[in-house]
Amino acid sequence: ETVLTQSPGTLSLSPGERATLSCRASQRISSSSLGWYQHKPGQPPRLLIYGASSRAAGVPDRFSGSGSGTDFTLTISRLEPEDFAVYYCQQYGTSSWTFGQGTKVEVK
Amino acid sequence: EVQLLESGGSLVQPGGSLRLSCGASGFTFSNYAMSWVRQAPGKGLEWVSSISDSGSGTYHAASVRGRFTVSRDNSESTLYLQMNTLRVDDTAVYYCAKVGGRTPAGPFPLDFWGQGTLVTVSS
Question: Tens digits of per-residue pLDDT, B100-119?
Protein backbone atom coordinates (compact mmCIF):
# COMPACT_ATOMS: atom_id res chain seq x y z
CA GLU A 1 0.00 0.00 0.00
CA THR A 2 1.25 3.46 -0.91
CA VAL A 3 1.31 5.76 2.13
CA LEU A 4 0.84 9.48 1.48
CA THR A 5 2.26 11.90 4.05
CA GLN A 6 1.07 15.48 3.93
CA SER A 7 2.84 18.43 5.50
CA PRO A 8 2.39 20.60 7.34
CA GLY A 9 -0.54 19.34 9.38
CA THR A 10 -1.82 22.88 9.82
CA LEU A 11 -0.99 26.02 7.88
CA SER A 12 -1.92 29.35 9.49
CA LEU A 13 -2.07 32.11 6.90
CA SER A 14 -3.88 35.37 6.15
CA PRO A 15 -6.09 36.06 3.15
CA GLY A 16 -3.97 37.14 0.21
CA GLU A 17 -1.00 35.02 1.24
CA ARG A 18 0.42 32.08 -0.69
CA ALA A 19 -0.16 28.54 0.56
CA THR A 20 2.16 25.65 -0.28
CA LEU A 21 1.03 22.14 0.68
CA SER A 22 3.17 19.04 0.33
CA CYS A 23 2.29 15.40 -0.31
CA ARG A 24 5.01 12.75 -0.19
CA ALA A 25 4.44 9.16 -1.30
CA SER A 26 6.13 6.12 0.25
CA GLN A 27 6.85 4.83 -3.25
CA ARG A 28 6.93 6.29 -6.71
CA ILE A 29 3.50 6.92 -8.23
CA SER A 30 2.46 8.01 -11.68
CA SER A 31 1.72 11.71 -11.99
CA SER A 32 -1.51 10.80 -13.77
CA SER A 33 -2.72 9.14 -10.57
CA LEU A 34 -2.37 11.95 -8.03
CA GLY A 35 -5.24 14.22 -7.06
CA TRP A 36 -6.03 16.96 -4.57
CA TYR A 37 -9.36 17.58 -2.84
CA GLN A 38 -10.75 20.45 -0.77
CA HIS A 39 -13.02 19.59 2.16
CA LYS A 40 -15.06 22.05 4.16
CA PRO A 41 -17.15 21.17 7.26
CA GLY A 42 -20.63 19.98 6.40
CA GLN A 43 -19.84 19.68 2.70
CA PRO A 44 -18.64 16.82 0.54
CA PRO A 45 -15.04 16.87 -0.67
CA ARG A 46 -14.42 18.68 -3.94
CA LEU A 47 -11.94 17.62 -6.60
CA LEU A 48 -9.45 20.42 -7.28
CA ILE A 49 -6.55 18.84 -9.15
CA TYR A 50 -6.15 15.55 -11.02
CA GLY A 51 -3.19 14.08 -12.81
CA ALA A 52 -0.97 16.06 -10.41
CA SER A 53 -1.40 19.33 -12.30
CA SER A 54 -4.72 19.54 -14.17
CA ARG A 55 -7.45 21.70 -12.64
CA ALA A 56 -10.91 20.19 -12.40
CA ALA A 57 -13.82 22.00 -14.04
CA GLY A 58 -14.69 25.28 -12.36
CA VAL A 59 -11.60 25.42 -10.16
CA PRO A 60 -10.05 28.91 -10.02
CA ASP A 61 -6.60 29.32 -11.51
CA ARG A 62 -5.13 30.40 -8.16
CA PHE A 63 -5.00 26.64 -7.46
CA SER A 64 -2.13 24.79 -9.09
CA GLY A 65 -0.54 21.38 -8.68
CA SER A 66 2.94 20.16 -9.47
CA GLY A 67 5.36 17.36 -8.77
CA SER A 68 6.32 13.88 -9.85
CA GLY A 69 7.66 10.60 -8.53
CA THR A 70 7.17 10.79 -4.77
CA ASP A 71 6.85 14.53 -4.14
CA PHE A 72 3.80 16.58 -5.05
CA THR A 73 2.69 20.11 -4.21
CA LEU A 74 -0.56 22.03 -4.16
CA THR A 75 -0.15 25.80 -4.33
CA ILE A 76 -2.81 28.42 -3.69
CA SER A 77 -1.34 31.63 -5.07
CA ARG A 78 -3.45 34.10 -3.10
CA LEU A 79 -5.77 32.82 -0.41
CA GLU A 80 -9.39 33.88 -0.65
CA PRO A 81 -11.71 33.65 2.41
CA GLU A 82 -13.44 30.60 0.90
CA ASP A 83 -10.14 28.70 0.58
CA PHE A 84 -9.75 28.02 4.30
CA ALA A 85 -10.44 24.31 4.53
CA VAL A 86 -8.76 20.91 4.78
CA TYR A 87 -6.89 19.63 1.73
CA TYR A 88 -6.21 15.98 0.93
CA CYS A 89 -4.00 14.36 -1.65
CA GLN A 90 -5.00 10.97 -3.04
CA GLN A 91 -3.34 8.35 -5.21
CA TYR A 92 -5.64 6.38 -7.51
CA GLY A 93 -3.18 4.58 -9.73
CA THR A 94 -3.94 1.08 -8.54
CA SER A 95 -7.06 -0.70 -7.39
CA SER A 96 -6.15 0.15 -3.78
CA TRP A 97 -6.43 3.87 -3.17
CA THR A 98 -5.03 5.95 -0.35
CA PHE A 99 -5.47 9.46 0.95
CA GLY A 100 -3.03 11.63 2.82
CA GLN A 101 -3.97 12.59 6.37
CA GLY A 102 -4.85 16.14 5.30
CA THR A 103 -3.52 19.68 5.72
CA LYS A 104 -5.74 22.22 7.42
CA VAL A 105 -5.40 25.75 6.08
CA GLU A 106 -6.65 28.09 8.78
CA VAL A 107 -6.94 31.84 9.23
CA LYS A 108 -4.01 33.34 11.06
CA GLU B 1 -26.15 18.21 -13.14
CA VAL B 2 -24.57 15.23 -11.41
CA GLN B 3 -26.36 14.30 -8.21
CA LEU B 4 -25.52 11.56 -5.74
CA LEU B 5 -27.81 10.90 -2.81
CA GLU B 6 -26.79 8.49 -0.08
CA SER B 7 -29.24 6.86 2.31
CA GLY B 8 -29.39 4.06 4.85
CA GLY B 9 -27.15 5.41 7.57
CA SER B 10 -28.31 4.85 11.15
CA LEU B 11 -27.34 3.71 14.63
CA VAL B 12 -26.46 0.01 14.77
CA GLN B 13 -25.02 -2.24 17.44
CA PRO B 14 -21.56 -3.78 17.14
CA GLY B 15 -21.75 -6.99 15.14
CA GLY B 16 -24.80 -5.76 13.26
CA SER B 17 -25.41 -5.16 9.56
CA LEU B 18 -26.47 -2.21 7.45
CA ARG B 19 -26.91 -1.52 3.75
CA LEU B 20 -26.17 1.90 2.32
CA SER B 21 -27.61 3.09 -0.99
CA CYS B 22 -26.57 5.86 -3.34
CA GLY B 23 -28.97 7.06 -6.01
CA ALA B 24 -27.31 8.70 -9.00
CA SER B 25 -28.64 11.09 -11.64
CA GLY B 26 -27.37 13.58 -14.17
CA PHE B 27 -24.95 11.21 -15.93
CA THR B 28 -24.94 7.78 -17.58
CA PHE B 29 -24.44 5.71 -14.45
CA SER B 30 -23.52 2.50 -16.28
CA ASN B 31 -20.52 4.20 -17.93
CA TYR B 32 -18.65 5.01 -14.74
CA ALA B 33 -17.00 3.25 -11.85
CA MET B 34 -18.17 4.27 -8.39
CA SER B 35 -16.64 4.34 -4.91
CA TRP B 36 -17.35 4.68 -1.22
CA VAL B 37 -15.14 6.85 0.98
CA ARG B 38 -15.65 7.43 4.71
CA GLN B 39 -14.63 9.94 7.33
CA ALA B 40 -14.61 8.95 10.98
CA PRO B 41 -15.26 11.70 13.55
CA GLY B 42 -12.25 13.99 13.76
CA LYS B 43 -10.33 11.94 11.21
CA GLY B 44 -9.37 12.21 7.56
CA LEU B 45 -10.77 10.59 4.44
CA GLU B 46 -10.45 6.82 4.04
CA TRP B 47 -11.18 4.93 0.82
CA VAL B 48 -13.53 2.00 1.50
CA SER B 49 -14.62 0.28 -1.72
CA SER B 50 -14.84 0.71 -5.49
CA ILE B 51 -16.68 -1.02 -8.29
CA SER B 52 -16.23 -0.95 -12.06
CA ASP B 53 -18.87 0.32 -14.47
CA SER B 54 -20.32 -3.12 -15.17
CA GLY B 55 -19.93 -4.34 -11.59
CA SER B 56 -17.56 -7.11 -12.65
CA GLY B 57 -14.64 -5.64 -10.71
CA THR B 58 -14.89 -4.85 -7.01
CA TYR B 59 -12.19 -3.62 -4.67
CA HIS B 60 -12.15 -3.14 -0.91
CA ALA B 61 -9.77 -1.62 1.61
CA ALA B 62 -8.03 -4.10 3.87
CA SER B 63 -9.89 -2.67 6.89
CA VAL B 64 -13.28 -3.77 5.49
CA ARG B 65 -12.40 -6.72 3.26
CA GLY B 66 -14.49 -9.75 4.09
CA ARG B 67 -17.07 -7.63 5.94
CA PHE B 68 -18.24 -5.06 3.38
CA THR B 69 -19.47 -5.72 -0.16
CA VAL B 70 -19.95 -3.08 -2.85
CA SER B 71 -22.48 -3.67 -5.63
CA ARG B 72 -24.54 -1.73 -8.13
CA ASP B 73 -27.78 -1.89 -10.07
CA ASN B 74 -27.25 -0.09 -13.37
CA SER B 75 -30.92 -0.40 -14.30
CA GLU B 76 -31.77 1.63 -11.20
CA SER B 77 -28.66 3.88 -11.24
CA THR B 78 -27.97 2.86 -7.68
CA LEU B 79 -24.80 1.96 -5.79
CA TYR B 80 -24.86 -0.15 -2.64
CA LEU B 81 -22.60 -0.95 0.27
CA GLN B 82 -23.52 -3.99 2.34
CA MET B 83 -21.81 -3.72 5.72
CA ASN B 84 -21.69 -6.78 7.98
CA THR B 85 -20.03 -7.48 11.32
CA LEU B 86 -19.88 -3.78 12.03
CA ARG B 87 -17.37 -2.50 14.56
CA VAL B 88 -17.23 0.68 16.63
CA ASP B 89 -14.40 1.95 14.43
CA ASP B 90 -16.67 1.77 11.37
CA THR B 91 -18.48 4.82 12.75
CA ALA B 92 -18.18 7.49 10.08
CA VAL B 93 -19.85 9.59 7.45
CA TYR B 94 -19.95 7.46 4.31
CA TYR B 95 -19.67 9.28 0.98
CA CYS B 96 -20.64 7.90 -2.39
CA ALA B 97 -18.44 9.24 -5.19
CA LYS B 98 -18.31 8.98 -8.95
CA VAL B 99 -15.06 7.86 -10.55
CA GLY B 100 -13.99 9.76 -13.64
CA GLY B 101 -13.73 6.61 -15.78
CA ARG B 102 -15.00 3.06 -16.25
CA THR B 103 -12.58 1.33 -13.90
CA PRO B 104 -11.17 2.15 -10.47
CA ALA B 105 -7.87 0.64 -11.60
CA GLY B 106 -7.30 3.37 -14.15
CA PRO B 107 -5.98 6.86 -13.48
CA PHE B 108 -9.36 8.42 -12.75
CA PRO B 109 -10.08 10.64 -9.74
CA LEU B 110 -13.30 11.03 -7.76
CA ASP B 111 -14.93 13.87 -9.62
CA PHE B 112 -18.30 14.13 -7.87
CA TRP B 113 -19.34 13.33 -4.31
CA GLY B 114 -22.61 12.95 -2.46
CA GLN B 115 -23.42 14.71 0.81
CA GLY B 116 -22.78 11.58 2.87
CA THR B 117 -24.74 9.45 5.31
CA LEU B 118 -23.82 8.88 8.95
CA VAL B 119 -23.28 5.39 10.30
CA THR B 120 -22.92 5.08 14.06
CA VAL B 121 -21.87 1.76 15.56
CA SER B 122 -22.48 1.74 19.28
CA SER B 123 -24.09 -0.34 21.99
Answer: 989 887 789 999 999 999 99
